[in-house]
Amino acid sequence: MSATAAGATPRGATAEPLTRTVSGQIRVRIREKILSGAYAPGAQLLQDSIAAEFGTSKIPVREALLELRSEGLVDIFAYRGFQVRPLSRAEVAEVFRLRLDIEPRCAAKGARAASTTEREAAAAALQALNAALAAGQLPVAGDLNCAFHLALVVPRLNPVTSEVLYRLHTLSERYVRLHLQPAGRVTRAAREHHAIYRAWARRDGKETERLVRAHIKETRAELEATVARTA
What we know:
By secondary structure, this protein is mostly helical.
């Protein structure tokens, strides 16, 4: 799995053309149903039913589900088959703790060392994210949020770290969508992202690190409370 380039749409994004293989197309569609909640947390994923829904055989469905398992969105159990991974306060705590350990310092490094092209890509990623949020397009916004945050760490400088962060953002996307639902959250997220970008664009690594850390901490605290109420 190669790191997403700065400003590029992350793998699995619904904005990308569907993968040419049947299993790839099904993976994209199941992924979006999981992230949107159409396939609810903890729901059993019956291969026969999904194959009928998408008009295909069970083989590409199974291949798609196995790949989604590797993304952390699906669990598999002996004799029970596949199910959507349940939402978990423990998972929120772990994912966001790891992001706090990694992302702020890498974004600070990116602020100091990004090229002109990488800075333009980060600006474009933020613009696309803001447009999606303003239009209420949360499915697209989740992928664009990942693209913006990865642009800040500059995958060229941190290729392995970018791989890890991509996985963490994939795991956190369902939670981020929950986080953005209450009134005012989208506006606040846009304001925080803009402040982070301004510090990053002026090469202020120290302020970038502080703002990214505060952004992740606040999101984590609110998500832990939300998941505790809904779990």
